[in-house]
């Protein structure tokens, strides 16, 4: 029996497929951890890795970017119309970052938090210095690696129509991506402890419906005007309008251990955006669960991950994981089918529930080795595509 509805024939190892109609483009940002090959501890080598990438005369390595701390780097894919293309670039870019890291004396690992204890080194720059002065310990604790998915929208009005309608469905995306069970040398008890650390920012997390692009932008202006935030880039809603691209940016996911999980997340996010955009175009009413309940759904997803239970977005009551993920597929089914992604999503969720995601993989590795350094090294091999 297919646990996520229907029977998809010929589900072979092909990512995506030919869309039935023109699909929205999607791009992915991934933050990756730089670690020691010997100990697995994070290394403050981002400047060296970025310099090596920038020295290449051509290639996408030049697009690597620094983040808040020197123990991590970030890359962004180009926008793509198919999940085949997203996966191809993700695998290539991860291998490219791994090559630059090796040249600097490090490994690179798709881990959303460091399993081993670390005191991060903040990158230089006026903005990062302002953040450290303003937010104190919260800034120092933010060595966390996320995955942000950008999906094209036609206008800010459509984008806000999407933001208002996807709120309830974002917590299951966090559960799917959960890849941060360890924090400062201890098992946190969470699947996504990164999301708990990230939500210490005062602007992070669930939001209320906006109703219009004008109301959204007014909210952002008012938040910055308080003086608590330096600029609109510090508005860290679970999903927001991108300031740099004509996209909705969904920001709830951990960086995923395996590229295939990232592709699954990207396909589901695109399905959510397309489903919400169609509802906005049809003038369907906006579901309006309060942000207070959505924060509880977010906590439940971070704590439980794929082991469940989760809060069902339709009722905001606890339900088994397979029921919630089945509801997510049902909700986005038409959009997934039209984009050519339905078979990919059904197969991906079935496989993920069977073998577990990044959090379970890390815990299983620790049970085998009883060595967090060995966990990090194994994850680095997976990230680079050598395991």
From TrEMBL:
Catalytic activity: L-cysteine + L-glutamate + ATP = gamma-L-glutamyl-L-cysteine + ADP + phosphate + H(+)
GO biological process: modified amino acid biosynthetic process
Protein name: Putative glutamate--cysteine ligase 2
Family: Belongs to the glutamate--cysteine ligase type 2 family. YbdK subfamily.
Role according to the record: ATP-dependent carboxylate-amine ligase which exhibits weak glutamate--cysteine ligase activity.
Class of this enzyme: ligase
Entry EC number(s): 6.3.2.2
PANTHER family in UniProt: GLUTAMATE--CYSTEINE LIGASE 2-RELATED
Keyword terms: ATP-binding, Ligase, Nucleotide-binding
Pfam family, any one: GCS2
GO molecular function ontology, one term from the record: glutamate-cysteine ligase activity
Organism encoding this protein: Streptomyces filamentosus (Streptomyces roseosporus)
